[in-house]
Specification:
CATH superfamily of the largest domain: HUPs
Bound molecules: glutamic acid
Strand content: 5-15%
Largest sheet: 3 strands, antiparallel
Helix content: 40-55%
Number of helices: 19
Order of helices and strands: EHEHHEHHEEEEHEHEEHHHEHHHHHHHHH
CATH topology of the largest domain: Rossmann fold
Length: about 500
């Protein structure tokens, strides 16, 4: 193994955000490509946000995504524990060291005091940041108050002037004016670190070489580097990833009902299609190739192809990927996967699933759409008379009525109710009356399905429905057309 070490550091929110999945994927690809290690670290110092079962869900999602990690809470490793709440004693001594070095200081301001001063500043239309009030408390007094049990936080002491700069693998040189940086809390009153502190300590202790994460952390990165500097540690190399957007103005978010990884799997998106799609959400290979398996991504991934602008989650594109992956699936595998979706609409109806699957395989975009597409086999939907008038097929209600009457007799007389026999007899019917094939097949298909678009045509549907249901639906069609024709004074010239 090389000394390349990347990590994915999710907070357990109970939801694998697609932006998060992409971060995990890129961190995984980066490490795998270079023979390095990929680490999972759970960032749960914000106990208020804790969601029960959320940590296990992260393991599960990583597993489902195929992103195996070399070190992590459930797989172990030399740098554990990998859950921040289990490391809670590690951070305070480092914060104390910073106080010693005057790079941090205890702050005793109460919530109310802070609120009052914040209000006064914002009332003037200015941006609030901590006013370094407690920086000016003498060391002795601060020590005495800390020891007396008075609640305090520890804040980073950020110099007020000058600029901080770092090199990002994606964004190049990034500079931030120090005066905009807040003296962030490093340790909270409960003694637990904030993200702002824990990420630095842990990335260092876990010897992370490359920090790959979302751009929302980019403006704080100079602050983190000041911490590395204060400790005399080598900072990692950073790679910030642009945000994944829902559209031009909105971020993808759970609150707005945008799907997470788990939702997509449940809706019947294939893991490989999702990963392929996510990989291209903000990254493009040199040759604009579109299809990649995970091992192929490991080979092809290149930081140079990462876009600097945010990318938009385009569900149509995901659907397209998904349908392409489904088409490429082995038929038997497809049959297994589609069966529960057929069941949702057709359970107990005695439909030949294998034949239906043959008809559906190339038409399945997303599995969750399958029940809606095949439901007509269980129940004939209401449909409009207009369906019988098809310009290209040259059909209208009167012709349809003639056709259905004859088709009913023909089908009823068939001994062998197979697709071939049905087809042959309906073709014969068309030939005998000088009709085009479509002039017969269209009305039959409409009568059997109530739809203008179906998996398979008239004879496939008839076979799937079986003799009894087919005859019944043809009779319903005849009835419907007769009523229509008599209401509109259209007569069959028999
Ligand atoms: N815990 C942070 C998050 O879930 C991770 C940020 C990072 O990768 O440093 O967004």
């Amino acid at each position: 193994m090389t000394d390349i070490r990347t990590r994915f550091a999710p907070s357990p929110t109970g939801y694998m955000h697609l932006g998060g999945l992409r971060t995990a994927l890129y961190a995984y690809l980066f490490a795998r490509q270079r023979g390095g290690a990929f680490i999972l670290r759970i960032e749960d110092t914000d106990q208020e946000r804790e969601v029960p079962g959320a940590v296990e869900l992260i393991y599960e999602d990583m597993h489902k995504a195929g992103l195996d990690y070399d070190e992590g809470p459930d797989v172990g490793g030399d740098y554990g524990p990998y859950i921040q709440s289990e490391r809670k004693d590690k951070y305070l001594p480092f914060a104390m060291e910073l106080i010693e070095k005057e790079k941090a200081y205890p702050c005793f301001c109460t919530k109310e005091e802070l609120q009052e001063r914040r209000d006064a500043v914002t009332a003037k239309g200015e941006q609030w940041k901590y006013d370094k009030h407690c920086l000016h408390i003498s060391k002795d007094e601060a020590k005495r108050r800390m020891e007396s049990g008075e609640p305090y936080v520890i804040r980073q002491n950020i110099p007020e002037d000058g600029k901080s700069q770092f090199d990002d693998l994606v964004f190049g040189s990034v500079g931030v004016d120090r005066k905009v940086l807040d003296d962030n809390v490093l340790i909270k009153t409960d003694g637990l670190p904030t993200y702002n502190f824990a990420n630095v300590i842990d990335d260092h202790l876990m010897q992370i070489s490359h920090v790959i994460r979302g751009t929302e952390y980019m403006s704080s990165t100079p602050k983190y580097n000041m911490l590395y500097e204060a400790f005399n540690w080598q900072p990692p190399i950073y790679m910030h990833l642009p945000v994944v957007m829902k559209d031009a103005t909105r971020k993808l978010s759970k609150r707005h009902g945008d799907p997470g990884f788990e939702d997509l799997l449940q809706q019947g998106y294939l893991r490989d299609a999702i990963i392929n799609f996510i990989a291209l959400l903000g990254w493009a290979p040199k040759d604009n190739r579109e299809f990649f398996t995970l091992p192929e991504l490991v080979k092809a991934f290149d930081v140079k192809g990462i876009s600097l602008s945010s990318s938009i989650f385009n569900i149509d594109k995901l659907n397209w990927f998904n349908s392409e992956y489904i088409k490429k699936m082995d038929f038997e595998e497809y049959l297994v996967m589609v069966t529960p979706w057929f069941d949702k609409a057709l359970k107990g109806k005695g439909i030949d699933y294998r034949r239906l699957a043959e008809l559906m395989h190339s038409r399945t975009e997303v599995f969750s759409l399958v029940p809606g597409m095949v439901g007509f086999l269980a129940e004939l939907p209401d449909y409009s008379i207009d369906l019988y008038s098809h310009q290209k097929m040259k059909t209208d209600p009167l012709l349809s009525l003639k056709v259905l009457k004859l088709a009913l007799t023909t089908a009823a007389a068939l001994r062998d109710f197979s697709e071939d026999a049905l087809k042959e007899s309906l073709m014969k019917l068309a030939a005998e009356h000088g009709w085009k094939t479509g002039q017969v097949m269209w009305p039959v298909r409409v009568a059997l399905s109530g739809l203008s678009s179906t998996p398979g045509g008239a004879t496939e549907i008839a076979y799937l429905l079986g003799r009894e249901e087919t005859l019944q639906r043809l009779a319903i069609g005849i009835n419907f057309l007769e009523q229509y024709c008599s209401m509109h004074n259209i007569h069959l010239d028999e």
